[in-house]
Structures are given as structure tokens and as C-alpha cells.
Amino acid sequence: MKFKAEIDIMPLDALLDPQGKAVTNAMQNVGLPEIEGVRIGRHVRLFIEAVDQKVAEEKVDEACKKMLANQIMEHYSFSVSAC
Predict the structure, then answer these.
(1) Structure-derived torsion over alpha carbons of residues 65, 70, 71, 76, reported in degrees to the nearest 10
(2) Mind listing the domains of the chain with CATH numbers?
(3) What is the pTM of this model?
């Protein structure tokens, strides 16, 4: 079966996010001072061939741990659905 994974990777809350801070500061300059605490991350979409959803989820988790996310500085979450 073919599955689609949607993965969100974000910096850990305890770490400084320079991009997010810059965007937060820029919000005031564009007339949006009520927006604060911006955090910038990544979104990854991938397709995977697996015998069932559980196996697909295990493979996506493995890909996140081995390549997509730096677990020292980032956390990730994902959803997997059949195509």
C-alpha cells in the first residue's frame, strides 16, 4: 500500500529561534504588533510504500530520527494516511 506522511519539525521550545524572533520583531513594522512568539520550523511531505499503516508510521519515525530531525535541537510530529 502507498501512504503519505506529513511531518512537522520545530525547534525545541527551550532553544532560541533567531528566524522566529526576527519575524516576531518584523510584525510590529507591518502593523501586526499583536502577533508574538513566532517559531519557524519545517514541513516535510513524503510518500512511502508499506504493508500497512503501522509499518509506514514506524518507517517515518525512523526517517525522522535518522535524517530529518536533529533531536538535540528539534522535535517532530507526523501523521500518516493512505493514498
Answers:
(1) -70
(2) 2-82 (3.30.1280.10)
(3) 0.89
How far is Cα 83 from Cα 80, in angstroms, rounded to an integer?
A: 9
Contact 2, 55 (CB under 8 A): no
CA 80 – CA 77 distance, rounded (Å) = 10
Residue type, 34: E
User: With b meaning 16 or more CB within 10 Å and e meaning fewer, what string describes 52-74?
Assistant: eeeebbebbeebbeeebbeeeeb
| Residues paired with 49 in a beta bridge | 2
CA distance 19 to 37: 11
pLDDT digits (tens, 9 = 90+) for 23-66: 999 999 999 999 999 999 999 999 999 999 999 999 999 999 99
- CA dist 28 to 11, 16, 18, 33, 40, Å? 23, 20, 16, 4, 17
